[in-house]
């Protein structure tokens, strides 16, 4: 090979490596291939055919250079014609005189107006190279000429080298295109999914809002019904002449009122699933002092952090607090007397609620005369029975300590969400 030819070949291979081999754009690969073959060797009629993905036994023209009719989409059956044989056997074919090929000549004679592969009508010589990647056929690069024996051994060797690079470049570009198509599909699916999720979220939000409004209305109606019952009990007690009966009726009224207050706090609050116990117990204790006319002589020391209880626990706990505070108001400080008349905590009710290790601890204390001096002559015993039943309902344990007043502690487990 002359130094001029060798230099031209090396330049061509370098350009193919830098411009074709590294490209991921099929259109650019085809165009650059045609440009370089024409510029360096004057190949005026070049065609690239690729295997059809859906039909493995067919090749299809995807790009051409130098033809009047581009022939895009024209197909060749693998094993038929020069290009088809190259595709079948994965070997280069060079023909100096295509008319010497009997099958080719017979096809032209049978149908003079047709050529098995779209190309120049006066094709005399042809060079077809398989485009391979790891011995897998990607397509065929075909070069035609109207001059006999145009291509020589060096053209054959060069096109074989170039064909390998073109095959790899096309394969890489096809895979990249598939990845991009897959990414685009995933993006579309993701956007559709996000749109559906957003739509579903809005729908659920509207439904939740409607449910909250409905639940608030239910709590409002329950509170109103309980308030009516409380008012009826108050009216009924006003007509009673027996002091014991009147006290029993008043106790029932406060119990109903404590439950009504719970439902009121629920529909007025932001969280329909829980009761803010600090606010609830403060309001409940103030109402009890007011109901029994003890607001002037007694005060409540509330030690409750920001705890929220489920209504299933808040209702029985509220009733227990109602009973215990009522008993303190009625019996703990007879005639202002406490366990120590000099003590500064005279006529004080301490209410505390804490959450420790998954258990709530209710603590109610007074500094009165103690249970031994007050419980034997007062009450019907129903309140004590109610507290015992409600403690069992909470799954809790109740303890009492009678030392300079009465300390009552209730421990019960927190409900799991």
Beta-strand percent range? 15-25%
* Overall spatial form: rod-shaped
**Rounded mean pLDDT score:** 82
Rg measurement, Å = 49 Å
Tally of individual helices = 10
As laid out across the biggest beta sheet, the strand order is 3-2-1-6-5-4
Query: What's the helical proportion of residues?
Result: 40-55%
Question: Ends: how far apart?
Answer: 86 Å
Major pleated sheet: 6 strands, antiparallel
Low-confidence stretches: 112-116, 375-379
Q: Please identify the structural class as seen in this structure.
A: alpha+beta
Task: Please write the string of helix (H) and strand (E) elements.
Answer: HHEEEHEHEEHHEHEEHEEHHEE
Number of strands: 13
Overview of the molecule:
Helices cover 53% and strands 19% of the residues. By secondary structure, the chain is of the alpha+beta class. It has a six-stranded antiparallel sheet. It has a five-stranded mixed sheet with strand order 8-10-11-13-12, with helices on one face. Helix 6 (243-268) runs antiparallel to helix 8 and helix 8 packs antiparallel against helix 10 (382-394).
Descriptive keywords:
417 residues, alpha+beta, 6-stranded antiparallel β-sheet, 10 helices, 53% helix
Question: Topology of this structure?
Answer:
Elements (H helix, E strand, L loop, with lengths): L2 H19 L4 H16 L3 E7 L6 E8 L9 E3 L3 H9 L3 E3 L6 H9 L14 E9 L2 E10 L7 H86 L4 H26 L6 E2 H15 L7 E5 L4 E2 L1 H22 L15 E9 L2 E8 L4 H4 L7 H13 L2 E6 L3 E8 L4
Parallel strand pairs: 8-10
Antiparallel strand pairs: 1-2, 1-6, 2-3, 4-5, 5-6, 7-9, 10-11, 11-13, 12-13
Helix pairs in contact: 1-2, 1-5, 5-6, 6-7, 6-8, 7-8, 8-10
């Amino acid at each position: 090979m002359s130094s001029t030819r060798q230099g031209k070949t090396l330049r061509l291979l370098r350009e193919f490596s830098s411009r074709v081999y590294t490209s991921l754009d099929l259109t650019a690969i085809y165009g650059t291939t045609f440009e370089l073959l024409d510029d360096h060797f004057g190949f005026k009629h070049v065609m690239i055919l690729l295997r059809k993905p859906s039909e493995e036994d067919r090749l299809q023209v995807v790009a051409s250079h130098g033809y009047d009719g581009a022939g895009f989409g024209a197909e060749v059956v693998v094993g038929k014609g020069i290009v088809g044989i190259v595709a079948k056997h994965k070997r280069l074919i060079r023909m100096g005189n295509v008319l010497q090929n009997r099958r080719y000549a017979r096809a032209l004679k049978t149908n003079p107006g047709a050529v098995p592969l779209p190309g120049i009508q006066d094709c005399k010589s042809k060079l077809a190279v398989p485009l391979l990647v790891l011995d897998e056929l990607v397509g065929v690069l075909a070069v035609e000429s109207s001059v006999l024996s145009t291509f020589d051994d060096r053209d054959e060797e060069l096109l074989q080298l170039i064909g390998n690079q073109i095959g790899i470049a096309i394969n890489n570009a096809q895979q990249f295109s598939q990845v991009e198509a897959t990414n685009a599909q995933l993006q579309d699916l993701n956007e559709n999914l996000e749109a559906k999720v957003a739509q579903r979220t809005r729908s659920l939000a509207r439904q939740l809002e409607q449910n909250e409004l409905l639940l608030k209305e239910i709590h409002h109606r329950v509170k109103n019904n309980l308030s009516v019952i409380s008012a009826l009990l108050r009216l009924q007690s006003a007509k009673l002449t027996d002091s014991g009966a009147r006290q029993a009726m008043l106790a029932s009224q406060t119990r109903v009122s404590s439950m009504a207050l719970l439902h009121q706090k629920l529909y007025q609050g932001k969280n329909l699933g829980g009761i803010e116990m600090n606010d609830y117990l403060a309001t409940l204790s103030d109402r009890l002092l007011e109901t029994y006319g003890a607001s002037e002589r007694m005060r409540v020391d509330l030690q409750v952090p920001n705890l929220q209880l489920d209504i299933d626990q808040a209702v029985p706990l509220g009733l227990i607090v109602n009973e215990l505070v009522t008993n303190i108001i009625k019996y703990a400080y007879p005639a202002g007397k406490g366990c120590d008349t000099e003590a500064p905590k005279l006529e004080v009710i301490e209410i505390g609620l804490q959450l420790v290790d998954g258990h709530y601890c209710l603590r109610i204390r007074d500094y009165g005369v103690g249970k031994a001096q007050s419980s034997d002559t007062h009450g019907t015993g129903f309140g004590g029975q109610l507290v015992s039943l409600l403690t069992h309902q909470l799954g809790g344990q109740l303890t009492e300590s009678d030392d300079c007043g009465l300390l009552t502690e209730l421990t019960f487990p927190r409900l799991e969400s």
